[in-house]
Structures are given as structure tokens and as C-alpha cells.
Amino acid sequence: MANDPGFWRPSSSDVGDDLLAGENENNFVLQSSLSNFLPISAHRTQILYALEQYGVLVLVGETGCGKSTQIPQFLYENGWADSSKCIICTQPRRIAAMTLADRVASEIGDSSLVGYSVRFASTFNPTTGKIRFVTDGWLLRETTLADPLLKQASVLIIDEAHERSLNTELLLGVVKKIRRVRPELRLVVCSATLDAESFLDFFCKKTTRKKGTDEAATRKRSRWGPRVDTSERDEGGKPCLTEGTIISVDGRQHPVDILYQKEPVSDYVKTVVDTALQIHESSDMDGDILCFLTTGEEVDEAVEMAETIVSNPNSRTRKGKGPCVCLPLYAGLPANSQRQPFLPKSSDEVKSNSRRIIFSTNIAETSVTVPNIAHVVDCGFAKMPYFDPDTGFDRLITCAISQASAKQRAGRSGRVMPGKCYRLFSEKNFESLQTESAPEIQRTNLTSLILTIKALGVSNVLSFDLMSVPSVEALAHGVECLYALGALDDEAELTELGKEMVYFSTEPRVSRMLLAALDMESREETPSMVKRLIVGDCLTVAASIQVRNLFIRPRTENQWRKYDEAVSDILDRSGDHVTMLHLFDLVDHTNKMLSGEECRERFVNRVAMQRVLDVRSRLARFLHSRFGGGSNWLGTKRQEVVGSQTYDSEERSEAVRRCVTAGFFMNVAKLGSDGQYYSLRGNFALSISSTSVLHRYGESSDYIVFGGTYDANRGGVDCKPNSTICGSWLRQLAPHYWR
DNA sequence: CTCTCCCT
Helicase C-terminal domain spans which residues (predicted)? Predict the structure, then answer.
């Protein structure tokens, strides 16, 4: 981009050299062209030897080196699955586990040997299977509930460990514990250059480092050589399973040119659009453009801005090489639009030699791989979730990305051809960024994590060995929350209720809500209509909470008017929970999913709604298997009742809100004399989200219960979903907590 | 009147 004075090029750098070993070489794109000459193949012997000799192998493998597909096959071919044991490979994401299993099955040519197991779906055959791809989360449940010592496995491969997801980190702790009892369980941790050593440190004793001049040499050796504990090692070279080693494998990344701004930019959305269009206009390189922004809203704005400029006949881009297509990409998008960037170019696009400009949120950083990207434009910011244990609020803050993140984004180009990355900040800014962002475990609500650790039989949660240590405040909040929910007793041991909650796949608060519903159903004094509806209703609420983007957000004044009309027949002034119920009543009483048109009219995301129904029926099946009986929570009994609507809706609404409160009583706010809500826990100010029923149509209430909080645009904290409640319920439902 | 992304 010689004609663009905005950027300068400090150096040409091969991002592949130090790129955090990106995503899998799988995701949406099958790279069959990589075929049989993968860089990992050159390391086959080295890897097999390492696992003969050591208990732990940290594998530094870059994007596209083939580690996820090849290592399980090397191990299988070398007899690691000859006994009744198998090779397990974990992934942070379902789609990765599933596509990898399919691909390895076809490479081996025998699908009875390879399969995946993720929540609600499994193709793995336990009698014939040798290689099992799973999600971290699935394996965690397996180790807490079914196979605590992971006896089914001879080798465990933990992939994408550099992402440090909550589940990965918990799993690392669990595996460390298992290896104390079963040191023969081999562990392969696939990670990035920067933290390879810290993984080894976590699993293996550190070598005593020499002081003084030798230090540098020792460091270097310990970093790349085996981690040998000489005091325990036999002379005969027998394997020492408490030791580990690091192997590094080259990637197939093409070089990526990094270009910086001289000064930080003031309006990054506009600058992103300008930059993308300038690249389109002036670059000789083929290949599409991927732009990183922070929110779906910004993405929409950028697409609109770019399309306006492009369609303007006087615009300079008309003089450019060819046409371009602007596409949005973010999670909240309807499925159809979300698929667009991954589809092969249409014949029109090919004929006119059109270039795609994809405006995306963080989803394209690790979760999905957009094909054919030659240019990346990086605004340098991202939305980061952050849990504040003092207030108990989840927050979502726009902040500068880490260096690792910037490298990862840059690396999204250069996968199929040499790439360029335009950073909308200066090189000096880059140097001042954090090397890595804080791991999720240090930024999140730990309630579920603590429950899982307790379920593993750990009496002192603080003694559980984790790679990244969470803050004392967050741990204390988690323990407080579990205690208040009745899952922990005074000695911080699991109660019967807590043990029951371990089996639930929902977060503890939601589990508590469902248990409250079951309890209400079983009580004699409960009115019969409530008995028939309450568990099904709470299942609907539980499932809705798990699925985001159920409603499509109106954008224009006109759309808001239509939205008001659309919700009028399902609206319940008590708030969002019961309103959601009424939406699903529409489906329940006909037993038919809403049509695409009905969904559009009602501003409902059809895919999300279908997902709620799926999650709900699975939760119902779980409750049924656990609590049995002839319960017909979602069946014909319910259909008759919600279809006829002969029930007392006030009675039903109160019953549901009581159950919600039984789980979410820590999330209660009281109306202050100034008209603002304040959380009972800590007295922090809250506003009702503008998309909440209570904001647009509700009546004011002394107390509300809210599902979650998020940062509002103009400062302050918003909450949603909300329902009105009576203060007196708190004394009945959580007397130990609110006196 | 404005919610990043995963997972059991």
C-alpha cells in the first residue's frame, strides 16, 4: 500500500516463528491440500521416543503442523492402544473434536477405531475404539463421575492448551492429580512457544539451575531439552515418568508483514473501513480481507459504512480493481448470514474477480477460520469478560488486546499465501501491551469450578494444584455462593444437595432453581395446576438462560414499534422470565416449531429457539433419569394445560419467579428512593437493561431478581433477564442469607 | 436503545 501514508512497516516478520500455536488446522476449513507432507511427520520418531522415556511431553506446534491429526495416529500405530486402553485427545470446542475425529477416521480408513464424544453426541465405540476425540468439558465430567483415574486411557493429549480455557486449566489440575497415582498415563500438552516451559514446570520438578555465568546455558537447555530429574533417574536409561520434555515442530505459516500506524487512531471503526477499502483498491495481492472489531454492533456499522462508500458512484473505490463484497461475522448473526464467509465464492464473485471484506468480532480470532485471507486489519481492542467478586457482577469491558492476541489475529492471514496485517496502533503501543491476557480462571465466576473440585474429593480447595492461581476474592465469592445455595456446609464440605448438584449440567444457581421446582411439585400444599406446570416451566427458563441471542434486537424506531406489537400477546409484566415462558407456550401447545416467518415477525432467532428446545428436552431427560417417576414435564399434560390456558396465570407466574429466586437470590436488587435499583448484596447501583420487558413495559417493583449483569454503553451496569419479586420471598427462600 | 466467545 505505497500510496497510504497512514501505515509504516517496521520489519517483515514471519509470524509463524513465534505465533501462539493458533487454532487447529481444522475448524471449518479442510486443508486437504496439505495431504501427506506434514511438518509433524519429520518428528515422528522423536515424539514416540519421548513418550517411551518420559511421562510428559509438551509439544510446541504451530498452525497447520498437523499435530492434532497425526499424533494420535503415530501413537496408535506404535501400539499405545493395543491393550484395552485408548488414546484420548481433548479439544476446547465441540466442532473441533467432531471434525478431527471424522478426519482421522477417514485417514485411517476405519471408522470403528476413531470416534468423538462430546455432550449429547458420541460416535466412539468403546469396544473397538482406539482414538477418542473429546471436549475438555466432557472429559472433566467423565473424570468426576465415571472414570476418576482415567483408566480407559493410555495417553492423554490436551490440545490448544495455550488458550488456557477454564476447562483446560481444571483438566490440567485433574491430570496432575491422576498422574500421582497413575504415572504411566502419558500426557501430551500441545501449546505455544511462550508458555511451553511453564506447562513442563507444572507437571515436572524443576532442575536446579546453576547460578552465575552458567545460568543462560542452563536455561536454554532446560527450555528445549528434556526435564531430567537426575536424583531419581536409573542408570540403565529406563523411563522416568515424573520427567518431561519439550519438542518443537515447525508450522506451515507463510510470512506475514506487520504494518503499524504512527499514532493511535481516534475512530477505529471508520479507520478499519478506510483501511480495508484502501487495501482492496491498491493491493496487487489476491486474497480476502479480515477486519477485527469488538462488537456485533460495530461490525454492522462497518459493513454499512463500507457498502455506502462502495455503492457511491463518485467513490474512489469505483476506480479500483474489482468489486467487493462486505460480510459481517459474529455469533449473534442468523445462521444463514453467519455461513456466508465460509461458503465458496459464487460464480458471480469469481467471474467479476470480486474480493471479500469480512468484518468480524473476536469469533474469527480462534473459534472459526475464515478461508482465503491475505490481509488482516486489527483495531487492537476486544471485549473481555471480567468477574468482579466484590460486587458479584459479570462485566464486559472493551480493552486493548494482548501481544499474543495481536499475533494470533495477524496469523489469520498467511495461511494460504503470504499475508499482511495492518494494526491500527503504533509499534510502541504494541510493545507496551501485555504479553498475554489473564487466563480465564482469573477473570471468571468460580462457583461451578469449586463445585467440581469439591466433587473430586478435594477437601481444601486452596490446596488443589492449578497452573494459574485464581484470586482469593474470587474463590471466597464462589465458596460463599455455594454455601448460600446450600451446596456446602459449615465445614465447606459438600452437602447432600451439593452432591446432587454435581450431576447437573447447569450452573449451580440454575441447578438450585430446578431442584426448587421439583420440591414445589412434590409439596402437598402446591396448587394442582402449578404442580403440573412448574418443572416444565423451570426447564424452559433454564434452557433459555443457556442460549444467548434468543431475541433479535430491533434496530430502527420502526422495528421497535413492530417489536412492541409482536410481543404484546406473550408479554408478562412480571418480567422477562415469564415472558420467555409465554413464547415457548406457543410452541408447546401446538407441539410445532414456529415457522421462519413467525420467528421473523416476533424478532425471534429461530436457530436459538430450536436450541432452547433441544437443551430443554435434554435437561428434562436428565431430570427424568435422575428423579424418575412418571413425570411428564414437557409432554401431553403440559400441552393440554398451556393450550387451554385455563390456569391461573398469576399463580403460575409467582411459582416460576419463586423458583428463579430460590436459585438467584444473590442477584436481587431493591428500588432506591432515587428510582435506581441497588443490589442487596453490597448495595451497588444497577439499571434494568433497555431490552428487558421491565424496562419497556413493566411496572416498578420494590424488588427484582436478575439473571446477569453487563456493562452499559454509557457507564453503569445493566441487568437482564429480570423479574419482579416480593421481598418477603427472600426470607422464606433464603432465610440463612437474607435475614 | 445497544451482549466477546466457549463448554458440561
Answer: 271-457
CATH number at residue A139: 3.40.50.300
**Of the given ranges (A58-62, A409-413, A446-450, A722-726), which has the lowest mean pLDDT?**
A58-62
Q: How far is the CA of A79 from the C1' of B6 (A)?
A: 34
Compare A210 and A501 and report the one with higher pLDDT.
A501
- pLDDT tens-digit series, residues A244-264: 999 988 777 788 899 999 888
CA A605 → C1' B6, Å?
A: 20
The mean per-residue pLDDT over the stretch A67-81 comes to 93
Within this chain, do residues A89 and A189 fall inside the same structural domain, yes or no? yes
Mark the nucleotides of strand B covered by protein, meaning any atom under 7 Å from a CB. 1-8
Mean pLDDT of chain A: 85
Which nucleotide minimizes the distance between its C1' and the CA of A91?
Answer: B7
The residue ranges of DSSP E strands in A195-334, in sequence order, are 240-249, 256-261, 288-292, 324-329
Distance in angstroms (rounded) separating the CA atoms of residues A721 and A457: 35
**In Å, what is the separation between the CA of A135 and the C1' of B7?**
8
A118 located within any domain: yes
Q: Which of A22-26, A355-359, A481-485, A588-592 has the lowest mean pLDDT?
A: A22-26
Residues A177 and A207: beta-carbon distance below 8 Å: no
* Rg, C-alpha atoms of chain A: 27
Nearest protein residue to the C1' atom of B6, measured from CA: A93
pLDDT at A32 exceeding the cut of 50: no
Give, as one character, the DSSP assignment of residue A99: H
Q: Which nucleotide is closest to the Cα of A398 by its C1'? A: B4
Which nucleotide comes closest to A691 if you measure CA to C1'?
B1
A487 and A350, same structural domain?
no
Does any domain span residue A739? no
What is the spatial distance, in angstroms and rounded to an integer, between the CA atom of A261 and the C1' atom of B5?
28
Helix (H, G, I), strand (E, B) or coil at A395: strand
What distance, in Å, lies between the first and last C-alpha atoms of chain A? 67
What does the pLDDT look like over A583-607, one tens digit per residue?
999 998 888 888 888 888 888 888 8
Residue A707 phi/psi, 5° resolution? -80, -45
Same domain? For A422 and A451 the reply is no
For B4, nearest residue by CA–C1' is A383
Q: Which amino acid is at A340?
A: Q
A121, amino acid identity = A
User: CB–CB of A639/A588 below 8 Å?
Assistant: yes
Helix A649-664, helix A508-522: angle, nearest 10:
140
Q: Measured in angstroms, what separates residue A295's CA from nucleotide B3's C1'?
A: 8
Span CA (A343) to C1' (B8), Å: 31
| φ, ψ dihedrals at A386, nearest 5° | -150, 125
Q: What pLDDT is stored for residue A219 in this prediction?
A: 39
For chain A, helix, strand, coil in percent to 5 are 45, 20, 35
Predicted structure pTM score: 0.84
Q: How far apart are CA A444 and CA A447, in angstroms?
A: 9
**Domain with A198 in it:** 20-249
Confidence of residue A386 (pLDDT cuts 50, 70, 90): confident
